[in-house]
Write a structure and sequence with these properties.
With 143 residues, the chain is mostly helical. It has helices at residues 15-31, 37-49, 54-63, 69-72, 76-80, 82-93, 100-112, 117-141. The chain has a single domain (10-141), classed as TerB-like (Orthogonal Bundle).
């Protein structure tokens, strides 16, 4: 069971449509400066771990470069999970370096799912702290 299955809102679309919108948003942000093989591999691995069928992942990746971020706001699940969607977009974009085109795409994504500029800034800060904590744990565990 994936986390999108337990959305406490009225379902407005199928499992496939919800995941497609979510993955498309993440990949669209990554693809704003060209989708690297590292980003693509990370998205595929992450989505497979969530139980998303490979066909949905591949379709989402294929349509992401032409995706209109504003349309994601029409998907209730994407909007409900907006902070997580933006977090995942930031984390995936950071895989090969978070550039200005990606930051602009993430800002559009945040706006589409009704997050304010201050919420977006807070999400960036939390992601940075999380990544820093992971590095700290790696250092501790390697001793």
């Amino acid at each position: 069971m994936s986390f999108i299955d337990i959305v406490p809102i009225e379902k407005d679309a199928s499992f496939e449509a919800n995941w497609s919108a979510y993955i498309t948003g993440v990949v669209a942000a990554c693809a704003s400066d060209g989708l690297s093989s590292q980003e693509k591999s990370a998205v595929v691995d992450w989505a497979l771990a969530q139980g998303v069928p490979l066909a949905i992942i591949e379709q989402s990746i294929a349509k992401a470069p032409n995706a209109d971020m504003r349309l994601l706001g029409r998907n209730k699940s994407a909007t409900f999970f907006g902070p997580y969607l933006v977090r995942d977009a930031i984390r995936m974009c950071k895989i090969d370096g978070l550039g200005e085109p990606e930051k602009a795409a993430i800002a559009k994504l945040a706006e589409a799912v009704h997050l304010s500029a201050s919420q977006l800034a807070e999400i960036y800060g939390v992601v940075d702290r999380y990544d820093s904590a992971l590095l700290g744990w790696k250092r501790i565990l390697q001793r």
